[in-house]
Amino acid sequence: MSGSKANSFSSYMKVSVIKKAVLQGLPSASGMEIIDGVIYVVGDDSPYLYVLDHSLREINKVELFQTEDFESGRIPKNIKPDLETLTHLTIAGNKYLLVTGSGSDVNRDKGFLIKLPTKYNKKFVVQELNFKGLFDLLRMNEDIIGTDGELNIEASTVTEDYFILFNRANKKGVNTALVFNLEEFIVYLSENPELIPFPVVIPYELKGINNIPAGFSGASSMGNQIFITASVEDTDDAISDGEVYGSFVGIMTAGKDALLKGSRQEVLSAIERYAIVEENEVPIPLKIESISVYEKENDKEIIALAVADNDLGSSELLMLQINLD
Fold it and tell me: What number of other Cβ atoms are within 10 A of residue 71's Cβ?
């Protein structure tokens, strides 16, 4: 499937920040999901899954792994696992969260499958995963990373038929959506890690700011409609931080059963709408890391929550109003 050019869109969309709050004590938010009104957040330099209620009160903090390197409140950049994605999955009728690292360094190939509490078991059950086998295959594919790029998984989401990872481009690489058959990916996760699935790879060219292209940073699905975020940061690689110029929200559509039918053209659409995130009619210079659709007000208005990393040891939560008319 050919690359999709963000600057060719004609459909109108406006994305506005209507509320925001600082999440103190929650560093470097990178992934977020909302399930049954509960907000789940992971940070890329934290060993915890943070659980918040609708008033943003922390109601639980689940330890994903033990470390002695969190004493300062942030795991140092050179050794952090860089947990970047958080996705809701249903496996055998049970609700799970899946966390993945970015794969941008040898320390960043781990992930976690977290079974959410039920009325029979009130505890979170955490299983550590090793994505090295899968990520090694992805790292060898030039369609994913380009000739001078690198693996940098920044987002994931689940539709009716697919599990999708989003690889973020650096200045030399390409943004790609990696689309897996959902049933095959669940078997790989929960039954047989030797059955490594391989995705359909779809490149996307994203409009940026100041001649710096945007890179995928977050994703959330509502049925087969996918909301993505893309941020613009002046950095040459997947490790270093740089000046942040702003973030965009885009919408694409997943084709039903297209992988099973063997038709790549219908797997994912081009990005159908794309707009910069504004506050008081001005682009907001924040690095949005994740998005979760909260509610659909009507056919023309959607409310979503997003988290942003301020690179200062705390995070910001934004309520976004997405207008489609």
Answer: 8
